[in-house]
């Protein structure tokens, strides 16, 4: 009888068993779309299309793991070369050709492709395998000499630029020079002879610039290109993009080697890009660009103008129909908008790439709901297809499209509506200028003939992007959509002169119009219109909907509003986190409520001490006797009470957390320097009213006494309450009486009193005891029950660390993540954001400011610990967050996961927080 195994087999390999070999190379037929981590997005999707039986040229993918090994050690892993050789041999066998050799040489492309599509990675090199020898073979085999030399010059150009690091302009300038010399308007007009001449020139440029000849050995070309892809992972542009998009630095990129197919073989060939739906608006239809007799990059580069994809039907109906059917297959398979790169070689369609496509915010909402309607995705998936950042974008104002709404601005030209939104800014003509002007706090519009990856910094700095060339799939359009920036491209009427830093055009009257650097322009990414001057903007209809001004179910309501409504409704149904507002006034409270706030998480009382009330505060601070102090407080009481009454009314039936006075007192007093000057003048001026002079002297003394080196860590919050007798009591009384008034008026006030900056439970107990007595006495006097709860902010590390003790005296915690971030890191937000933060972001110490997105590892760890300890003491402890982070999408997911009950944020961010709380729960 076989022995029955009672223990799992040991996992330790004995010393003689070799470790399983790592597999560094996958044939396209071996992968699938779920292997993005390993094969990169491009490789995984090429594999998926291969599996689906779509016409993909054969090839193989070198894994991200090989790249990581290379980046770790600085050398390719030793097994890689052999594995590549084996896959190359099998590719050669499949194709019946040898790489760069023989009468019908095999050519390949070497293409980078990380898990996330990333601008800044190495550009693809096409036509690898061509050399002085194989170019002749290709010419003979194709019967097209022009094509062979065109392909060869492209190889030297792309290889020279991206692999050998030669300045690309040297090649471009040479092409322009030649075109001018022979009178050719476009590159298609260059003959085989011209291209042969260019090849000789390009080889010379490579030799001059790199000190070596362009490599003639096909395998060497391929290996150098593979290595260059690995190296490009750490290029500046790639790093900048990863930081911006929070993509981890250690993923590495895959490399795809793909047999070439040729779109530049003549008029029955071409190349294009297509979308299964409109990535700008989200509607269904035929969207894409096609370029006849061209290879790969020509479409995206915007070098020649493309024709709309629909025109392909007339050019090549068979390929067009096949493409439409493939697009349907892909969309049903991926269950999402796909974008596609294809090439037609002498009437045969080839698929070169697909991926789930980038889209604008409006398209994201529309497409998600369309797909849900089609039954392709569930409501929960639809919710995951949109983000809070996209919703925020839809809440930005847009240009008024009404007839006379352009104000003083004049319509200059119309380009293509590439990425929606309204942008107004100063025209700048280079990435550097964009960064420089934006650095001075100016809004800028980056104006270029066409953009390329070197413009990334400028695009990031700009409000919007305007180009005079290129289609809706040009670099500018694609990147702008990805960044959520407004973009108008291909505004051909504009003559953009980047050297002279201006754009010019001839207007309808035949007059020349010139816009120089720094002039205000406006661009409308939804209509493609470009204006000189500033166009007035109108609020978004999505905001109007949130404000309650649009009925989302009315038949004539924009489908965008309907989509937003549907997704928000679903998010509200599934989310666990409640969403409250930070609001200090009744108007803010009312607005927040319309936006869906379920209470106020932070009502600051500071502003109630400003304006005309400053004088009363001065009396309070200057009071020499208990009577004087009591008089000042008595005067403040009714004012505070009225404030609270209004807010409780606006938030009737919902909780309102009122924070007792937090900032240091000197903030309510005159500025030290100003006051010193005033006192000196008083003293020097005979006849000054002695009372005024005396008050000023006493004020100055108080300001000096209260002056702190480090007010953030000084006399503020609960400390103020404990050293200024009667201050907190007055506030508590105002809250209690306001609640009693509301109750008597038939309302339902739900007051929560919050004590700021508590570091130890003793502070809280002192305030709490007094507050409870006051509330009890109001309840007795007025004969009502107020059910006011008392809690604290957790905004000091000590509070978080002793949360178990503090919870004994608190009904609720609200994490004050702004102060908590300051105190955990030991830096003051007011001081550091303008000083070393940019350097820290630059050096990658943080991917993003910890004031913007919660620092999960540090601040977040304290939040988690305090949640655990607090709930251990008091299982029904209510937990919320009221820092800026409450409206930050990424942070909302953290707070959901940390088990908080609610987040609180500024009124405008509430829809974003609701949506993200829904996404966190449905995830
Ligand atoms: P990117 O990531 O910049 O889109 P790709 O690797 O997709 O780079 O390639 C750039 C261009 O070259 C695309 O238009 C693509 O379709 C084209 N291309 C890539 N490989 C081939 C190939 N084997 N044959 C023909 N065209 C190709
Ligand atoms: Mg591509
Ligand atoms: Mg605080």
Q: What does it look like?
A:
The protein has 923 residues and is α/β, with parallel strands linked by helices. It folds into 4 domains: 25-259, Dna Ligase, domain 1 (2-Layer Sandwich); 270-365, 2-Layer Sandwich (D-amino Acid Aminotransferase, Chain A, domain 1); 395-541, Phosphohistidine domain (Glucose Oxidase, domain 1, 3-Layer(bba) Sandwich); 577-664 and 708-922, TIM Barrel, CATH 3.20.20. An 8-stranded mixed sheet has the order 12-22-21-14-15-16-17-13. Helix 21 links the parallel strand 24 (578-582) and strand 25 (600-604). 50% of the residues are buried. Mean pLDDT is 91; it is low at 1-13.
Q: What's the quick description here?
A:
With 923 residues, the protein is an alpha/beta fold. It has an eight-stranded mixed sheet.
Supply database-style keywords.
923 residues, alpha/beta, Dna Ligase, domain 1, D-amino Acid Aminotransferase, Chain A, domain 1, Glucose Oxidase, domain 1, 4 domains, 8-stranded mixed sheet, 8-stranded parallel barrel, 36 helices, 45% helix, 16% strand, elongated, disordered N terminus, binds adenosine-5'-diphosphate, binds magnesium ion
């Amino acid at each position: 009888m076989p022995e029955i195994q009672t223990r799992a087999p040991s996992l330790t390999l004995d010393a003689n068993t070799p470790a399983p070999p790592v597999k560094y190379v996958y044939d396209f037929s071996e992968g699938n779309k779920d292997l993005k981590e390993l094969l990169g997005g491009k490789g995984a999707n090429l594999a998926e299309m291969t599996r689906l039986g779509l016409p993909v040229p054969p090839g193989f993918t070198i894994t991200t793991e090989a790249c990581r090994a290379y980046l770790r050690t600085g050398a390719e892993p030793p097994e890689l070369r052999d594995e590549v050789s084996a896959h190359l041999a099998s590719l050669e066998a499949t194709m019946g050709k040898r790489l760069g050799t023989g009468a019908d040489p095999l050519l390949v492309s070497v293409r980078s492709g990380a898990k996330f599509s990333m601008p800044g990675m190495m550009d693809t090199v096409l036509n690898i395998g061509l050399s002085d020898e194989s170019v002749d073979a290709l010419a003979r085999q194709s019967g097209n000499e022009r094509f062979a030399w065109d392909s060869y010059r492209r190889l030297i150009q792309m290889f020279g630029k991206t692999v050998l690091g030669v300045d690309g302009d040297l090649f471009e300038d040479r092409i322009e020079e030649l075109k001018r010399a022979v009178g050719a308007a476009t590159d298609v007009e260059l003959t085989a002879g011209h291209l042969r001449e260019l090849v000789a020139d390009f080889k010379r440029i490579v030799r001059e610039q790199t000190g070596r000849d362009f490599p003639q050995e096909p395998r060497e070309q391929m290996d150098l290109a593979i290595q260059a892809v690995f190296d490009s992972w750490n290029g500046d542009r790639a790093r900048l993009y990863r930081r911006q998009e929070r993509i981890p630095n250690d993923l590495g990129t895959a490399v795809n080697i793909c047999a070439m197919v040729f779109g530049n073989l003549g008029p029955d060939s071409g190349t294009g890009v297509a979308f299964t739906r409109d990535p700008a608006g989200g509607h269904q239809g035929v969207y894409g660009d096609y370029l006849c007799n061209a290879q790969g990059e020509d479409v995206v580069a915007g070098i020649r103008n493309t024709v709309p994809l629909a025109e392909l039907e007339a050019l090549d109906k068979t390929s067009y129909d096949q493409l439409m059917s493939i697009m349907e297959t892909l969309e049903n398979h991926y269950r999402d908008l796909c974008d596609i790169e294809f090439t037609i070689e002498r009437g045969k369609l080839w698929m070169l790439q697909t991926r789930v496509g980038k889209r604008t915010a409006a398209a994201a909402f529309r497409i998600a709901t369309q797909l849900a309607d089609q039954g392709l995705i569930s409501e929960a998936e639809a919710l995951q297809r949109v983000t809070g950042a996209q919703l925020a974008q839809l809440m930005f104002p847009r240009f008024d499209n009404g007839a006379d709404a352009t104000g003083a601005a004049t319509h200059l030209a119309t380009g293509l509506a590439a990425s929606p939104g309204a942008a107004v800014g100063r025209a700048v003509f280079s990435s550097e200028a964009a960064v420089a002007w934006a650095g001075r706090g100016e809004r800028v519009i980056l104006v270029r003939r066409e953009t390329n990856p070197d413009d990334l910094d400028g695009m990031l700095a700009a409000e919007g992007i305007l180009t005079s060339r290129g289609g809706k799939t040009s670099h500018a359009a694609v990147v702008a959509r990805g960044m959520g920036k407004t973009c108008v491209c291909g505004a051909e009427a504009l003559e953009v002169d980047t050297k002279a830093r201006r754009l010019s055009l001839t207007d309808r009257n035949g007059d020349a119009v010139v816009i120089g650097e720094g002039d205000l322009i406006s661009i409308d990414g939804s209509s493609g219109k470009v204006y000189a001057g500033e166009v007035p903007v109108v609020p978004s209809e999505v905001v109007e909907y949130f404000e309650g001004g649009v009925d989302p179910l009315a038949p004539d309501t924009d489908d965008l509003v309907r989509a937003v409504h549907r997704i928000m409704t679903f998010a509200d149904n599934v989310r666990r986190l409640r969403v409250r507002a930070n609001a200090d006034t009744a108007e803010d409270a009312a607005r927040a409520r319309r936006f869906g706030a379920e209470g106020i998480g932070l009502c600051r009382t500071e502003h109630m001490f400003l304006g005309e009330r400053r004088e009363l505060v001065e009396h309070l601070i200057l009071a020499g006797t208990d009577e004087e102090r009591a008089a000042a407080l008595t005067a403040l009481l009714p004012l505070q009470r009225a404030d609270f009454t209004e807010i409780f009314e606006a938030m009737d039936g919902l909780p309102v957390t009122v924070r007792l006075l937090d900032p240091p007192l000197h903030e309510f007093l005159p500025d030290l320097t100003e006051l010193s000057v005033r006192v000196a003048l008083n003293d020097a001026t005979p006849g000054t009213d002695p009372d005024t002079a005396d008050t000023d002297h006493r004020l100055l003394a108080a300001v000096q006494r209260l002056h702190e080196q480090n007010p953030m860590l000084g006399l503020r919050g609960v400390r103020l309450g404990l050293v200024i007798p009667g201050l907190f009591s007055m506030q508590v009384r105002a809250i209690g009486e306001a609640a009693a008034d509301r109750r008597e008026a038939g309302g339902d006030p739900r007051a929560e009193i919050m004590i700021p900056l508590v570091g130890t439970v003793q502070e809280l107990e002192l305030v709490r005891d007094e507050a409870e007595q006051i509330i009890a006495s109001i309840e007795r006097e007025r004969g009502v029950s107020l059910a006011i709860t008392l809690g604290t902010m957790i905004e000091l590390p000590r509070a978080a660390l002793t949360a178990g003790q503090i919870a004994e005296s608190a009904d609720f915690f609200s994490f004050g993540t702004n102060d908590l971030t300051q105190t955990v890191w030991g830096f003051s937000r007011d001081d550091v954001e303008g000083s070393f933060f940019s350097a820290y972001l630059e050096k990658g110490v943080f991917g993003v400011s910890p004031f913007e997105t919660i620092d999960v590892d540090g601040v977040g760890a304290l939040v988690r610990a305090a949640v655990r300890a607090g709930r251990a003491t008091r299982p029904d402890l209510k937990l919320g967050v009221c820092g800026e982070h409450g409206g930050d999408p990424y942070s909302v997911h953290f707070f959901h996961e940390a088990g908080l009950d609610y987040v609180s944020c500024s009124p405008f961010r509430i829809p974003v927080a609701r949506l993200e709380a829904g996404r966190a729960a449905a995830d």
